[in-house]
Amino acid sequence: MGRFAEILEEEKKKEYMQCLKSFVDSEYQRTTVFPERKDIMNSMKITPYEEVKVVILGQDPYHGIGEAHGLCFSVNPKIKVPPSLVNIFKELKRDIGCYIPNNGFLLKWAKEGVLLLNSVLTVEKDKPGSHRGKGWEIFTDTIISKINEKKAPVVFLLWGAYAKEKEKLITNPVHLVLKTSHPSPFSVRNGFDGCSHFSKTNDFLEKNGIGKIDWQIENV
Fold first, then answer.
1. What is the mean pLDDT of residues 148-158?
2. Do the beta carbons of residue 33 and residue 27 sit within 8 Å?
3. What's the CA angle centered on 11, arms 6 and 15, to 5 degrees?
């Protein structure tokens, strides 16, 4: 995790994080919580601070059995691809010609330097939004703010009203912020369709001498 581990250690000392830990501990004991405990910090384990090129922001983890594994929008292999991710793959095909894969496992993106960060990192089974307002947002806002401090340019992809609220944390002029509607079936036609965020991201990275992202997810 590199610098992310240092940030986590700093935050652990704060009262809000101690309250959050107590809440999360009790929830894992009381009921079924996703993702698995070992996967909560996966986004930051797989994409170290020093290697972040792109940030995609989600809300909270998928709340169905076997889906969430700590990366926003991503599901484990052999799990049905969620509707929002189907629309992401459709835009990737339209924008840069990627074929639509048979799975929604986005580990490759994370290893390419795409931080797939949910604002809230845990959720109760079948209860979307159940862990909002418990402290996770303070922690992940801190993560975004620390990435904002990077000298190397980063692309922030803000999809939907919830993600767009985070734009206020991105003040460093070296970064690129791309905003549009959420890729969910309810809002995909309000801007996400045709947004070309993937080609725009790679163009920006290349112009800044940074390796572009290989967005193609392979079939399994």
1. 97
2. yes
3. 160
